[in-house]
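P.,

For your records, the input lines for the assembly:
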Amino acid sequence: MHIAHWLNVFCVWLDQTALSQAIQAAGWIVPTVQTIHILSIALVIVSALMVDLRLLGIIAVDQPLERVSARFLPFVWWPLLALLATGAIMIIGEPARSLQNPVFQLKMTLLAGALIVTAIVQFLTRRPSSREGAGRPRVGTYAVVVLSLLLWTGIVFAGRWIAYWA
Amino acid sequence: MGYDALLQWLEATSVATTIRENELLFPWIESIHVLAITLVVGSISIVDLRLLGVTSRDRPVGRIADEVLPYTWGAFAVAATTGALLFSSNAMTYGHNFFFLGKMMLIALAGINMAVFHLFVGRDVERWGGAGHVPSAAKAAGAVSLSIWIVLVGFGRWIGFTLH
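Structure tokens returned:
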């Protein structure tokens, strides 16, 4: 059978569960969860931006690269748990509107990309060579930074567009 | 001109009409608005969490504020501009929405908190050393700021659920 068929079966089943019905019935749950979701992505995107700006030698050049990444990368990784939890609640509340939504699927693809790029940034900023000061960033560094910023921006945009793609 | 007349005038401007009648403009502007707000709130929270002694304790408050706040202001300008455009498209409805009005009040409060911090509490910020002591008034300003922005994001989200 086609994967879209089973996704639909799953969404219909999930939609009828007691948990999903409870989320749909209590009007305050979705906006509360969305608020926590936005606050968490705020921490993630700004922390990624700070490390990216340091990689380009724009901010905190008086601090070693690995110090800056140790300062901010935990704020990229840990809020992801809150994003996952609040995202799961939104999915359970509206399975079809999320899982079967092409914009949601795009968002998850962009997220996978952003996680890979963040792992690369973590690796780049922990190499001993990164101890040098504010040298001219290499082409590869520029590419990673631009990719990181594009992916996180795309994730926020896609997040908002899920609501409009129905 | 009364408040409602002003809202009606705003709603009738060509910019407002264009946004209202175009299916794609509103979500695009809204996406930029949300992105800008995440940048404002995220960057301010870096300073607030430092004031509270939660993060970046090895770096002086003044340094962190200098490296972060220009991005906060830039993002705030974008958020305010896009917010004004979204508001204009449906001014009468937003202009009488509890959560929209509350959001504007919270922005004013955040501004007052920031002004008080800069004028009084933060005047000798350069002397708060790396691992040094942050005055409790400054910690309070950080806690107030963080609380305001958290509630403000909540109010922003609730606007979308209370328009009808």
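Two observations worth noting. The two ends of chain B are 26 Å apart (CA to CA). Chain B has seven helices and no strands.

Regards
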